[in-house]
Design brief:
The complex is a heterodimer of chains A (452) and B (460). With 452 residues, chain A is α+β, with helices and mostly antiparallel strands. Chain A contains ten helices and 20 strands. Chain A has helices at residues 3-19, 75-91, 117-120, 123-138, 206-219, 237-250, 253-257, 318-324, 357-364, 414-419; strands at 24-40, 43-61, 64-70, 143-162, 168-185, 188-198, 229-235, 278-281, 302-307, 310-311, 332-333, 342-343, 347-350, 367-374, 386-397, 400-413, 421-424, 429-431, 436-439, 442-450. Chain A has a six-stranded antiparallel β-sheet with strand order 3-2-1-4-5-6. Chain A has a six-stranded mixed β-sheet with strand order 10-9-8-13-19-18, covered by helices on one side. In chain A, helix 1 (3-19) packs across helix 2 (75-91) and helix 4 (123-138) packs parallel to helix 5. Chain A starts with a helix and ends with a strand. In chain A, 62% of the residues are buried. Chain B has 460 residues and is of the alpha+beta class. Chain B folds into two domains: 5-218, 2-Layer Sandwich (PmbA/TldD fold); 221-456, no CATH class. In chain B, strands 3-2-1-4-5-6 form a six-stranded antiparallel β-sheet. A six-stranded mixed β-sheet of chain B has the order 11-10-9-14-21-20. A five-stranded mixed beta barrel of chain B has the order 8-15-16-18-22. In chain B, strand 2 (41-59) and strand 3 form a beta hairpin. The longest helix of chain B is centred in the first third of the chain and has 17 residues, at 117-133. The radius of gyration of chain B is 24 Å and the shape is globular. The chains are: A alpha+beta (452), B alpha+beta (460).
Chain lengths: 452, 460
């Protein structure tokens, strides 16, 4: 569906909401096409072709807001969604800060958010890509199987219309592939994960994806438990990304204002180690969360969050900005038209440092290299920042990677860990865990490792 | 009935027009409403309705799937035609689609959509107040109400036609308590495959229970780390079995060799005191339905009988591969997803041990009452669970509360170390995520004791 078509649908939905009694209204319309391919043992196990379209309407009546969504984009369908949104608004309690966002400057076009190759690459070609990922992994010594290779792409357009001002549309493509490999020896099974992300299949390197998963699984064979102790820990880029996502979530002003963040009342404080710099960047063309404007039409931007030890900013949408007497950072995000915008990081960037991974390991001396964490949803207390999560990785001995270890926990608290980062690695890549993060490995001077 | 049987037949015919072993049309009309109270203010009212269909064609081991928004005949035929185009054989003739369906939805006394939204808002205000009255330590209360209705209509090329109309209602209360700079969270839920009548019997108690948990934990010491005996509580404790064993019994993981239970059918995987079921036919339970999302009637499936592995969890596709029948576990989040084998309500059958004695027999141990969630790696069986509410057991008594504990282990090992199953029993509700799809699931058990588990704690 053409974007101007979506904008027109948005405008009609806004008009319908005003007609249904809303004082103000905003509509978010989406249309997308996509594929999902699962390959196992060189065969296509499933091939899904998805087409989706829908609209969500946010309505305001006297500082009350309500939301409704639907998939029927006929005039009758739009009217039903608009009426449901207005009815929903009447149920909410009034909140003086609840109001439509004011127009905040022109959003600029970002080059490179969509690669036409996502649409022009034939399905047979992406099937071959998935197969070659699997073949690469299976060719590695001691790899006994691949659970499945998953390839997903989408090509979509989003449009916003509002009774107050902001309106516009943009097109975005993305794709990713991942696999889980199995390595075995004497009845033992270990797993490894590999992945790649990009704007189109030509951004994916099947060799690199397959090799990463295979080497990780093979390297885990013979894993034991590390001894329980406090020691230096190197977080691999994927784990660092999850950690950054955890920080980004806690820096959302909504959580801060509602007293659910360890960063509450700490703006301007020196709380991080000097090595660690964190930026939220909604404009980087390589970041899959980038867009010209956010989920309520405010231009996306670049916000330095942590720099030179200090906490410099929280992430705001128009509601939290009004409530906190700040400006929106363009951080209203939408999972889809099915949900109202919420404050959320866009792309988080961990600014890379100087040392290579080898140098980080050497600096750690004796410690643990953590390649994966599990239980982030259960083992983390977002209010206090305390965490205890299951982990997998390698011992570091004499500054080098040694025996594989699994079934242990790493524990600590967010602020303590943030202050304890002694170095950030120079290698940097996009990781789709913890949101969209450009991540680098981190050396933390001391963490609590719970094992044998 | 969401779709005319003549239309369904045409769609299936088109889907198989160039060959294929099996075709299915899954139509759905889903709607929902949710509302939250936070900072004592009713907010985030959210209403939605979606109609659409998913069509799949299976040929050999290959599944092709397409989904469309809306149920317009021309859209369904176009999607079916696209699916068939890649196959290129002689047409397969589908069986006629019956006009009447085999199953119907559970009865709902009070359709939640008919209850004024204002009444739901008042209910949230009542729960907010209940939680705040529980103690001065309570600083934050968030309660969410949600209702959802899924009307599904399945027709396939083997002549199956089945419908279901599932209405679910759920309340979730989260309470934060604060004391001397320490902060802890308590959580409690109430949910069922029922109408608004679920909420007539003192729903406010869950707010109070969530508040009590938070208040208890806020004074707690950090959990000690190490290997110990763990007593898992009833109800929410069933999450442990769901995660560490249930997922490994789902046939997709088993067939890929990505389960520690592959090749173990009939083998002894636990002491004979352990029997466990998956049962999607429990009346009114959160994970129940009349049929699964492939039209197979929901039923009770013994997973482990007296310590022996007795069945995997199947959908149609995986059952066909193993030459067996679906166990009625082919579930999908919506018409936009392919069905995959999923648990419904999974539980450990009550044993004969007195729950108090189970604890009294432990000198030193850990009592895990509820979990914040968990994760398991099916291929290796390694798991980790965050303990939401936990206590130390000292000299056979539950003593001090502990915070920040996790249980870490391997499911094969942990299951064999269960040495007591309590005679008490409780079911709880939750959501399970798998392959990007969310499904309502029930978990249940009484008190269960496991010897020799690793507790990961935050104590120095």
């Amino acid at each position: 569906m053409a974007a101007d078509g979506l904008e027109a649908i948005g405008r009609r939905a806004v008009e319908a909401a005003i007609g249904a009694g809303a004082e103000d209204a905003e509509a978010w319309a989406e249309g997308s096409r996509g594929r999902e391919i699962r390959v196992h043992r060189d065969e296509v196990e499933s091939l899904t072709e998805a087409s989706e379209r829908g609209v969500g309407v946010r309505a305001w009546i006297g500082h009350r807001s309500g939301y409704a969504f639907g998939t029927d984009l006929s005039d009758q369908g739009l009217r039903e969604v608009a009426e449901a949104a207005a009815a929903a608004a009447r149920v909410a309690d009034a909140d003086e800060h609840s109001a439509p966002p004011e127009a905040a400057g022109e959003a600029e076009e970002i080059e490179g958010l969509r690669d036409d190759a996502v649409a022009t690459t034939e399905t047979t070609e992406v099937i071959e890509l998935a197969r070659s990922i699997e073949r690469t992994a299976l060719a590695v010594d001691r790899i006994t199987g691949v659970e499945e290779v998953v390839y997903v792409d989408s090509d979509g357009e989003s449009a916003l219309a509002s009774s107050r001002g902001p309106s516009g549309s943009f097109a975005v493509s993305q794709c990713y592939a991942y696999l889980q490999t199995l390595a075995g020896d004497d009845g033992e099974v270990q797993t490894g994960l590999g992945f790649g992300v990009g704007r189109s299949p030509r951004d994916l390197d099947p060799e690199a994806i397959g090799t990463e998963a295979a080497e990780e699984a093979a390297s885990m064979l013979g894993a034991g438990k590390p001894g329980s102790r406090s020691c230096p820990v190197v977080l691999a880029d994927r784990v660092a990304a999850s950690f950054a996502g955890f920080i980004g979530g806690a820096l959302c002003a909504d959580e801060v204002q509602r007293g659910r963040s360890p960063f509450a009342d700490r703006l301007g404080q020196e709380l991080a180690a000097p090595a660690f710099e964190l930026v939220d960047d909604g404009l980087d063309p390589d970041g899959l969360a980038s867009s010209p404007f956010d989920g309520e039409g405010i231009p996306r931007g670049r916000t330095r969050l942590i720099s030179e030890r200090r906490l410099l900013a929280y992430l705001h949408d128009s509601y939290t900005a009004r409530r906190g007497g700040a400006a929106s950072t363009g951080s209203a995000s939408r999972g889809s038209y099915r949900s109202p915008p919420v404050v959320s990081p866009s792309n988080l960037i961990i600014e890379p440092g100087d040392p290579s991974l080898e140098q980080l390991l050497a600096e750690a001396g004796d410690g643990v290299y953590v390649t994966e964490v599990a239980g982030l949803h259960s083992g983390v207390n977002p209010v206090t920042g305390n965490f205890s999560v299951g982990a997998t990785g390698r011992e570091i001995r004499g500054g080098e990677l040694a025996d594989p270890v699994r079934e242990f926990t790493i524990a600590g608290d967010l602020l303590g860990t943030l202050a304890g980062i002694t170095a950030v690695g120079s290698d940097s890549r996009w990781v789709p865990f913890g949101g969209s993060v450009r991540s680098s490995p981190l050396l933390v001077g001391e963490m609590s490792v719970g094992g044998a | 009935m969401l779709i005319d049987s003549a239309v369904a037949e045409k769609v299936l015919e088109r889907a198989l027009s160039r060959g294929g072993d099996f075709a299915e049309l899954f139509c759905e009309d889903r709607s929902g409403f949710s509302l939250t109270i936070d900072e004592s203010r009713v907010e985030r009212p959210l209403a939605g309705r979606e109609r659409g269909a998913g069509i799949r064609v299976i040929r050999g081991e290959v599944t092709r799937f397409a989904h469309v928004d809306g149920l317009a005949e021309e859209d369904l035929l176009r999607a079916a035609g696209d699916l068939s185009s890649a196959i290129g054989q002689a047409a397969t003739r589908p069986e006629p689609v019956p006009a009447s369906a085999a199953a119907d939805g559970a009865e709902v006394e009070v359709d939640p959509a008919s209850v004024p939204a204002e009444r739901k808002a008042d209910l949230l205000r009542e729960l907010d107040e209940r939680a705040r009255e529980a103690g001065r330590e309570v600083t934050q209360v968030t309660v969410s109400y949600s209702e959802g209705r899924r009307h599904v209509d399945v027709a396939n090329s083997e002549g199956l036609r089945a419908t279901d109309d599932r209405t679910r209602v759920r309340l979730g209360a989260q309470v934060v308590a604060r004391r001397d700079g320490e902060v802890e969270t308590g959580f409690e839920t109430l949910g069922a495959l029922r109408g608004f009548e679920l909420l007539t019997d003192d729903p406010g108690r869950i707010a109070e229970e969530a508040a009590q948990k938070a208040i208890t934990l806020v004074g707690a010491d950090p959990a000690p780390a190490g290997e110990t005996t763990v007593v898992v509580g009833g109800g929410f404790g069933g999450v442990l079995f769901h995660e560490m064993t249930g997922h490994g019994l789902e046939a997709d993981a088993v067939q890929k060799g990505a389960s520690v239970y592959a090749g173990q059918m009939g083998e002894k995987v636990a002491e004979s005191l352990l029997t466990a079921y998956d049962d999607g036919s429990m009346p009114g339970e959160w994970g129940s339905g009349a049929i699964d999302d492939e039209g197979t009637p929901c039923r009770r499936t013994p997973l482990i009988e007296e310590g022996k592995l007795s069945s995997y969890i199947y959908d149609r596709l995986r059952a066909r591969r193993d030459g067996t029948e679906s166990t009625g576990n082919g579930r999908r989040e919506s018409f936009r997803d392919l069905p995959i084998p999923r648990m419904t309500n999974t539980y450990i059958e009550p044993g004969d041990a007195d729950p108090e004695a189970i604890i009294a027999e432990v000198d030193r141990g850990f009592y895990a009452v509820s979990f914040g969630g968990g994760q398991v790696e099916p291929a290796t069986g390694d798991f980790v669970f965050g303990v939401a509410e936990g206590y130390l057991i000292e000299d056979g008594k539950v003593t001090r509360p502990c915070r920040g504990a996790t249980l870490i282990g391997n499911c094969l090992q942990a299951l064999t170390r269960i040495d007591a199953v309590g005679s008490d029993f409780e079911m709880k509700t939750g959501f399970c995520g798998k392959a990007g799809q969310r499904a309502p699931v029930g978990t249940g058990q009484g008190h269960v004791r496991i010897r020799g588990m690793t507790v990961g704690g935050t104590a120095a």
